[in-house]
Amino acid sequence: SFPQVLYAKDPDSSKIYVTDEAEILSDTKESKLQKKCKSVSKNCKTDVAVLTISKGLDYTDLDNYVRTFAKEKGYAYDASSSEADYIVYVIDMKSRAVRVVTSGIAKSDISQSDLQSIIDKTTLSDGNYYKACVKYTDITQKLLSTSKTYKLFLYMPIKLGVAAVIAIVVVLVMMFNAKAKMTVDGNTYAKNGIHVYRREDRF
Questions:
Q1: β-bridge mates for residue 18, sequence order
Q2: What does pTM read for this prediction?
């Protein structure tokens, strides 16, 4: 079991995005990667994390391990979401397995083929694990920043403000037109040889 740690759902907090249990990253590289993941998480509105272990896990066992890890680390980005929004790139040095586990927005917006593409493009055979992890964050940011969900919520307050202004203008125009129509009577149409006679009856 992982130590229970509660993190604020804020990318600017002390949340840990890089956990190097396998110790394959130098302290300097780990620190750099932490900052990178923090920045990408903020840009994508999804927690983007890296985990390295030496457990000898793969496939479903590794996926379940990562999901438990993500839950206990507090990965979610937005506490109000119905499902935790995160993506975790995990390397198991003992089984030599590499997996990308997603939840929430990342799960719905990143296809299986894209996940496989992340694994294929993050080459580990040269032993440059830091470079592979950075590549993963770059690809993830590109995929999520071009997704429909991301575009839908991007600058939402501004979009709502613009929509409100347009609505007000439309209402004002309709009110003005309505008042203009109220000033029209039969005499208005007495032109071009067409005569409209007005009659009033008193009771």
A1: 50
A2: 0.69
